[in-house]
């Protein structure tokens, strides 16, 4: 191997981002990493100043002026996209008249690695860039692991919160979930109807057929209620056999009566459990948020309870709207939910 070829080989290993220029400033050859700067890898044969813009020193506009700055740090800009800023040092080349420019990405190395698809093998083994890349990769891996952990924790938190708001038997909202949904509707100033419904003769199912039958009945009733309301409405099991339905943006009494009547009719059909019939029905009472100057959860639940008692008094299996006359007729304000034991007969 000639001295010149040995020199070129050493430069490829020690300075893989170098270019060698002839006396006119034409690139004779380039190191393996420098060749990756162009998509076709053809740096050789191009004029150095056609490929790189010298930003500092500013007075360098020709190869002759460039030759005079041998040994000084150069601030360069790659003329082709993505127009990467680079650093360089020019020295005399291995043969007379030649010049060597050793290039570096400087602090933009991370972006350059991405843009030019470089790896640690594209840098000299002693280049501190390799250590920087390792640190960047380690940081990236740590951040990725942290993001994945945060996503899992977030998912677990959401699942835990959802579970805390869900009735495990029926899959409906529980009392806590209903309280939250009701509080949001009130806080947002939404117009809605609150329907309180419980099952007639449910206690008899539990007493004569067992709690397994009672649980099955509750599950079937929950499915009926969910099917008869819209997806944006809320259905909650708030007691043993008590349910609250929040109907959003529905204040037409006729529409609300149709919903209640459909639910009651379907609930009243015999429910088969292990070949035996479970016979229950439903009674409901409803109040409308539009009827109050100041809407409170306790007032709504209490008034719906009053209307529910009226349905019970009139013979069950029916729906009643709240009115002040009902409260006066009953003579007292019933306590808010839950009151399953008192009505499940």
From TrEMBL:
NCBIfam families for this protein: GGDEF (TIGR00254)
Xref: InterPro entries: DGC-Regulatory_Protein, GGDEF_dom, HNOB_dom_associated_sf, Nucleotide_cyclase, Rev_trsase/Diguanyl_cyclase
Ranges where the record places region Disordered: 325-345
Superkingdom of this protein's organism: Bacteria
Occurrences of domain GGDEF (ranges): 190-324
Protein name (Swiss-Prot/TrEMBL): GGDEF domain-containing protein
């Amino acid at each position: 191997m000639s001295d010149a070829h040995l020199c070129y080989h050493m430069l490829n290993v020690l300075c893989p981002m170098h270019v060698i220029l002839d006396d006119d400033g034409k690139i004779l050859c380039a190191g393996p990493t420098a060749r990756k700067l162009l998509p076709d890898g053809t740096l050789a044969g191009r004029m150095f100043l056609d490929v790189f813009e010298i930003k500092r020193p500013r007075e360098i506009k020709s190869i002759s002026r460039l030759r005079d700055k041998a040994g000084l740090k150069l601030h360069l800009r790659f003329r082709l996209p993505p127009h990467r800023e680079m650093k360089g040092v020019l020295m005399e080349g291995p043969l007379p008249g030649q010049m060597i420019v050793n290039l570096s990405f400087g602090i933009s190395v991370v972006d350059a690695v991405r843009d030019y698809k470089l790896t640690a093998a594209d840098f000299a083994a002693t280049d501190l860039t390799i250590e920087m890349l390792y640190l960047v990769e380690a940081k990236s891996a740590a951040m990725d692991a942290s993001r994945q952990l945060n996503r899992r924790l977030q998912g677990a938190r959401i699942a835990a919160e959802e579970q805390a708001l869900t009735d495990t038997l029926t899959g409906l909202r529980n009392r806590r979930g209903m309280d939250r949904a009701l509080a949001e509707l009130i806080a947002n100033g939404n117009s809605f109807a609150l329907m309180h419904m419980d099952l007639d003769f449910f206690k008899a199912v539990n007493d004569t057929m067992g709690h397994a039958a009672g649980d099955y009945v509750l599950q079937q009733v929950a499915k009926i209620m969910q099917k008869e309301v819209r997806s944006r409405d809320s259905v909650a099991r708030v007691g043993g056999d008590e349910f609250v339905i929040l109907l959003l943006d529905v204040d037409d009494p006729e529409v609300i009566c149709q919903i209640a009547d459909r639910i009651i009719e379907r609930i009243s059909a015999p429910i088969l459990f292990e070949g035996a019939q479970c016979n229950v029905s439903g009674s409901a009472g409803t109040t409308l948020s539009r009827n109050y100057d100041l809407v409170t959860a306790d007032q709504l639940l209490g008034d719906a309870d009053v209307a529910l008692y009226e349905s019970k008094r009139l013979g069950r299996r029916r729906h009643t709207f709240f009115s002040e006359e009902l409260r006066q007729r009953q003579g007292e304000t019933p306590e808010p939910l839950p009151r399953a034991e008192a009505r499940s007969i």
